[in-house]
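Kindly inspect what follows.
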Amino acid sequence: MPNPGEHHPAFEEYCECIFDLREDNLEVIQARIADRLRVSRPSVSEMVRRMQDEGLIRLDGNHILLTPHGEQLARRVVRRHRLAERFLTDILDLSWAQAHQEAGKWEHVMSEDVEKAIERILGNPTTCPHGNPIPGTNYQPPAAMPLSQVGIGQSFTVSRIPEELEFTPGMLEFLEEYNLIPGGSGKVAGFATTGDMTLEVNGTQVDVESFATQRILVTL
């Protein structure tokens, strides 16, 4: 097998996508990959065939699974992406949205030496800015729950913003604007009949749609 770093960026992108979908407890099927990467379903079908030939994935019915080789590649790319995001926000002071876009480029060109240097400069972080674990660290998940399960009048602290929300247009900008970021705290002010929530954050009330509240993880 070739070294994971020698693979074409397209293979890395797909392995990362499969890893992220699985991490978010989503069914890894071709249609979902197409939606996440915003590519056509025929393109995904062709890439799945090529990845099988490369020994990166295997199929279990309609489900797509990473092989040990694909898992190694995915973890390498995800690790570099999340380290890059942390560097871009913590050191270069870029916004969440900017860092997410730039890290998508860095993950394919970052050398092992640069990866180790960034980790050292950052003090060995265990999560990306959104609270998602960096592979290869001693990350210990907190006892978190979906924001949607917090009752009216209860206070919460944001723990994690899953990858699914990172790929939702405008969501990172919205969450950063209202300080709904890991470490940020607030209180549930009310619920709408649609399931949306009204939160009080830093003295300001903000309405958050149920799609987000069901996915944002918090601690009480």
Q: What stands out?
A: Strands lie at 57-60, 63-66, 145-146, 155-160, 185-191, 197-201, 204-208, 217-219.
